[in-house]
Amino acid sequence: MSQNLLRSRLDNDPVAKAEPRRLVLLGATGSVGRSTADLIEAAPDQFSVEAIAGGQDAEALAIMAIRLNARFVALHAPHQYGALKSALAGRGMEIAAGPAAVEEAALRSADLVIAAIAGTAGVAPTYAALRRGQTVALANKECLVCAGPSVMRAARQSGALILPLDSEHNAIFQILTSYLGHGQGRLSKTAWAGAEIEQMTLTASGGPFRTWDAARIASATRAEALAHPNWSMGKKITIDSASLMNKGLELIEAHYLFGIDPQRLEVLVHPQSVIHGLVSFADGSVLAGMAHPDMKVPIAHCLAYPNRMTTQARRLDLAQLATLTFERPDLERFPALSLAITALKSAGGLPTVLNAANEVAVAAFLSGTIGFGAIAELVEATCNACIADGTAREPTTVDDALAVDHVARERAQALLAETISIGIVTN
Question: Which strands make up the sheet holding 286-290, listed edge to edge?
Fold first, then answer.
């Protein structure tokens, strides 16, 4: 890199100039939001928070707003506006509530939008930010699973930069930017899906049920499913990790992020969760992204990109680790992953249906309505029903994808009620 080019990049980078990088944090009260806040507080001179947004918990959002000294605070739930306003009285912060308020937060002028709203609720604000051309650190995998083609098309048209924040996708992104250079860091089919890349591999810890037999997995309790061996995450993603559905959703996300054919994507179970992603090249070389299982590592990469920031994350000591192990996932014991792979290869609207049905099924399991084994059963039944009635058509816009999502949720709820009433699905 020439000195002139280096100087130009430094002159145009807010972190390099020690000027605060303006941030928007969507999903501020979730696990990713809290980890992001910890990193911001540890480097107060590097960041300023333009806006934050949360879902239902006005008290938790108010606490976060005060911690981060946010200028604009948005809550998704309109009925909690009064509680939020009261908690932030006298702080001089702008306050709003409702879905439109969350989109307003996403559109605030900022150097980086962290999109960490869980589930399909994160689709609209993330899409709004990308349409505007914002740089988005994407933690909401459902955004691409639900409406991948439309979301990626909007990013390409606006010139928006997507920084993958999930540990697996971030590892692959770091490998690819090291290989191709930061100048090609805009995720698109032409940037990454060349013949030189033979395969991309996402690793999975295997979750708490990695060594369990199928019958024991099917009867797992809520507490057992939430006891993840390596990661501390929100309840929904933890259940998805236990069923390996999360890894299936990540495969779909990787397909859209990197423009890679489904046949060149795979999952490898790696219980230590030290290697997060691998890229295999045509010459036989394999590059791996490695770090201790700590979400602050990929978050920090996104916060400072294209530079690096210092964190207190635990450093790898390979001699101390001594052994790293790998195995193929068992699709018979983990049918949710098999369903996701089928949806990925089928394309159309099936990933949208899969995601919607899974959110309904996981919520039913967490509430004690169904057993763990019934999660995949309900998802499969919903997918089959939506294929039969034409709901699983390919969405052409984000609004179309959200409409498919809505119908699929209704179908999943109806199937859930029907199976409970006749005693097929039990807790």
Answer: 265-269, 197-204, 275-281, 286-290
The residues pairing with 137 across neighbouring beta strands, listed in sequence order, are 114, 163
Residues ≥6 apart with Cβ < 8 Å to 332: 214, 338
The residues spanned by each domain of the chain are: 3-165, 192-293+310-321, 348-421
Residue 408 and residue 392: Cα distance in Å, rounded?
8
* pTM of the predicted structure, to 2 decimals: 0.90
- CB-based burial, 357-393: b 16+ in 10 Å, e otherwise: bbbbbbbbbbeebbbbbbbbbbbbbbbebbbeeebbe
pLDDT tens digits for 35-86?
Answer: 999 999 999 999 999 999 999 999 999 999 999 999 999 999 999 999 999 9
Question: Can you say whether residue 347 is alpha, beta or left, with left for phi > 0 and alpha for psi between -120 and 50 degrees?
Answer: left
For the chain, give the number of residues.
427
Please check whether the domain covering 3-165 is classified as CATH 3.20.20.70.
Answer: no
Are the C-beta atoms of 155 and 180 separated by less than 8 Å?
A: no
Handedness of CA 58, 60, 61, 63 (dihedral sign): positive
Is the CATH code 3.20.20.100 the one for domain 348-421? no
